[in-house]
């Protein structure tokens, strides 16, 4: 039995080696699992020299559907059960702030309209609207929107001239930038009532603005990284500044923000891990994070004092020079990362 297990067993250290995995660019690209991903996860699932299940968490800036729906799809993609208790996505952290808006009208952006509405209602938001609801109320809100696209998602029938929005929450990467930026600019300048008069900055009721993923780019299955929610934020702020003279203040969640990492640690602490070779143990810390995006992933891991291993299968491309944030190690893929971490017994 190696020193690793003996040390953990004898001293009953309540924090076995625990991993955090990023998803896009580390485990999957688009809809396809990376070749190394299945073996890397099976090593942690017990196929290792310690003969024990080694705990891990998935932490992604992705989103747009419920945690259970995403985990169901990931389980199919990766060929093993991914438990929603081990999964945090961009907007999961909103569960910790829903109390601020639970009884107030909020506009949610990103993903498919009604699907996202159900995610928000599942967190406890009670008055959830989408920009497609707004179009159904008055399609002249955005004359440039492609109305030929039949929206398959059901909409809510509401008179938005009587609805005062408290917040705009960007859960996931929005697909309809023209419509969404138009509605965001209307709501903020009118103090929350869509067709209300634009008011001077010092007079208007503030509308809170929240983004859940700062990624300017992310790794899908195209050869080069693709624009993400961070690009949408830049586009909105550029338009809003041109209209009003200044960008609009907002709250940012998602990797690398501290709120998301604290939420992940809290989730781990609440997690009792039954492990066949060790007594039931309590996670108290992350030991190593396996990541592909230096700007969000490595920056966040460094700030959270997690050890990090940067893989070359995602956003980071060594041909473009060294990473903007220094990882603990750099390897080819996630399987090499898991093997290195277990050898080094971080
Ligand atoms: O929209 C998903 C993208 O921003 C990155 O996802 O898994 O690499 O954090 P992930
Ligand atoms: Mg990634």
From TrEMBL:
Gene3D superfamilies from the UniProt entry: HAD superfamily/HAD-like (3.40.50.1000)
Cellular component GO terms, alphabetical: mitochondrion
GO molecular function: hydrolase activity
InterPro entries, alphabetized: CDP-alcohol_PTase-I, HAD-like_sf, HAD-SF_hydro_IIA, HAD-SF_hydro_IIA_CECR5, HAD_sf
Pfam families: Hydrolase_6, Hydrolase_like
The entry's keywords: Hydrolase
Keyword Lyase assigned: no
Biological processes, Gene Ontology terms: glycerophospholipid biosynthetic process
Protein name: HAD hydrolase
Organism: Boletus edulis BED1
